[in-house]
Amino acid sequence: PDTPVPPGFERAELENFRYADWAVGELVREARGKPFFDDTVFVFVGDHGVHLRGRELVPVDENRVPVLFFAPRVLPPARIARVTSQVDVIPTLMGILGGSYTTTGFGQDALARTQGEGFAPMVYDRKRIALLRGPRLGIFLENGEELAFRRREGGEDFLPESLTPDRKDEHRDGIALLQMAETLLLSG
C-alpha cells in the first residue's frame, strides 16, 4: 500500500507484481527445506512484458520478458545483458543440466554464448514480424514493407536506419525463420 505506483501503471498492476514476487519467494523458502532443493533447477519465465500501450510498430519493451534460472548449488548469480529470447530457455536449461541433446529449435544456450549479439524474434498483432539483433530491429509489415531501426546509445528509442544490402539479407533470413515457425505453430 505504501509503495508508490510508477508512471504508466495502475495500482492493481503494481499489486500483481508484488504478489508474483511474494509467491516466488514463498516457493523458494518452502523448497529450501526439501531434499530435492539442491538438485533442482528452478526456471521462472514471465508470460509477457509490461503493456505500456505505446504507439510503436512493434513495442519492443512489451516483449521484454523476465526469465530467472535459480539453482544456487550450480549457478553463480549473474545477469545476461545481451539480447536473448524465450526460444533460448530450453537450450540454456539443457546446458545447465549437462549431457547432449538434439533440437530443431532456433534457441541457443544463453550462458554458453560468450560472444555475439543474440537475437529475439517477435510477432506483434499477427501483422508485424520483427527480429531484434543487438541494437538493430528489422520489421516486416503485413503489406511486405521492410523497415529497420537502430537503438539510440544508452536509450530505448529506435531511430530509422537504412537497410544496406547485407542487412536486408540478415533481416530477411531472420524473418523467414519467424514466418516458418509461426506457420508450424498455427498448423498444430
Could you outline the blueprint of secondary structure elements for this entry?
Blueprint: H1 11-32, E1 42-45, E2 67-70, H2 89-97, E3 119-124, E4 128-133, E5 136-141, E6 146-151, E7 158-160, H3 165-187
Low-confidence stretches: none
> DSSP strand (E) fraction?
15-25%
Q: What does the largest sheet look like? A: 5 strands, antiparallel
- Please write the string of helix (H) and strand (E) elements: HEEHEEEEEH
Structural class: alpha+beta
- Overall mean confidence score, pLDDT: 79
Based on CA atoms alone, the radius of gyration comes out at 19 Å
Task: Give the strand tally.
Answer: 7
Side-by-side strand order of the widest sheet: 3-4-5-6-7
What is the helix tally?
A: 3
Give the proportion of residues in helices.
25-40%
Question: How does the overall form come out from the CA principal axes?
Answer: globular
Distance between the termini: 45 Å
